[in-house]
Amino acid sequence: MTGHRPEASPTPLVELRGIRAAYDGIDVLHGIDLTVEAGQVVAILGPNGAGKSTTLKVLAGLLQPTAGDVVLAGRRINGARADALARRGLCLIPEGRGIFPNLTVRENLWMVTHRGPDRKLVEERSVARFPQLARLMDQTAGTMSGGQQQMLAMARGLATDPALLVLDELSMGLAPIIVDELYATVAQVAAEGTSVLLVEQFARIVMDVAHVAAVMVQGQIVQTGRPRDLEAGLSQAYLGA
Amino acid sequence: MLQNPDRVEQFTAEIADMRLPDTASSRDRTMLRVGVALMVVGVVVGLVAYLIGHGTTNALQQRDAIVIAVIGLTLAVVGGALFVRYSMAQFLRFWMARLAWEQTASTDRLVEALKDRD
C-alpha cells in the first residue's frame, strides 16, 4: 500500500497557518501549521481530545478559526461556507459517518448529485468502488453494520470526485479486517491522485498509507515527518510523557 | 505520483473564483440592525406625514401626506419582518439541528426495537 511521496507542486493544496480555534471561548487549537501537497496523504495522529477533529472542522469550514489562515490552493478561504467548499471538491467524511440512517443506501448516494454526477453515475461509481453495496441498495442505511455504513459514507464521498478527501477517524468502532479494507481503498484513491488528509487515533493503521504524519497533542502539532520516523515517539505523545 | 493534475487545476480554479461572503453571523447582525433602523425610520416618516396632513387644509398636500404615511408604514413593516427573520435565525438553526437529531435518535430506537424482535 505504501505510496512514495508525490512530486511537490508549486502551491500546496492545503496550508493551515497558525490556526487557533475555540469552543465557547475555550481554546482547543493553539497555532496549528500543516501543509498538504497535491496528491499527498497526510495523517494527523494523536490521542483522544488532541484537537484533530477540530482541525478538520476548521479546514472544512464548519468552525471558524479565532486566528490564523486556512489556505486552499493558494487562496485564503477563512469564512468560506462548508457547502461552498464541498461543491468545489473538499469532501469531509466525518466521525460517525454522516449518513442518513432513515434513507436507503440508494437515496443516501443520491444526496451527492448536486455536485454534478447524475443518480446513475453516482450509483455506478459507488458500486465500482465497493461492490458489496450493489446488493444493499434498497436497504435502510441505519440497519447496516458499522463497516457497511462507513463504506457507504466513503462511496458517497468518492462519487463526487473530490480533489481533497478529509477523513475523520475512519476506523472508529470497526473490526480490524474492515478497517484494513477501507484503508486499502484510501490507498487506492491516493494512488489515483486524490489528496487525502486523515485523522486517526490508532496510529499504526495509517503507517503504510500516509506520506506524511503529524502528531498532535493538546491542540498543538508536536512532530511532523515520515510515519515510520515518528513511530518511536508516538507512545510518548500518547502517554503524555 | 500526481496522476490527475487536471482535477487539481480545476479545484484551484474553482477555489480562486469562489466568492467569500461575510460570515453568517455578521450578516445576521447587519440585517438585524437594518431592520431596527427601518422600523424607526418608518415610524418617524409616519409622524412627519401626520404633521404635514394636520398642518394644512389643502387637500392636495393632505393626499401627499397620505402617500408619505403609507411609505412610512411600508418601511416599518419591512423593518419588522427583517427584525423577526434575523433575530430568530439563530433560534431556528438550533431548532432545525434539534429536529434532525431527534429524527436520528428516533430511527436508532426503531432499529434497536426491530433487532430485538428478530
Molecular structure report:
The complex is a heterodimer of chains A (241) and B (118). By secondary structure, chain A is of the alpha/beta class. Chain A is 31% helix and 25% strand. Chain A is built from seven helices and ten strands. In chain A, the strands form two sheets. In chain A, strands 6-7-8-3-9-10 form a six-stranded mixed beta sheet, with helices on both faces. Chain A has a four-stranded antiparallel beta sheet with strand order 2-1-4-5, with helices on one face. In chain A, strand 7, helix 6 and strand 8 form a beta-alpha-beta unit. In chain A, helix 5 packs parallel to helix 6. The longest helix of chain A is centred in the C-terminal third of the chain and has 16 residues. Chain A is globular and about 45 Å long. Chain A starts with 13 loop residues before the first strand and ends with a helix. With 118 residues, chain B is mainly α. Chain B is built from three helices and no strands. In chain B, helix 2 packs antiparallel against helix 3. The longest helix of chain B has 59 residues. Chain B is elongated, with a radius of gyration of 27 Å. The two termini of chain B are 50 Å apart.
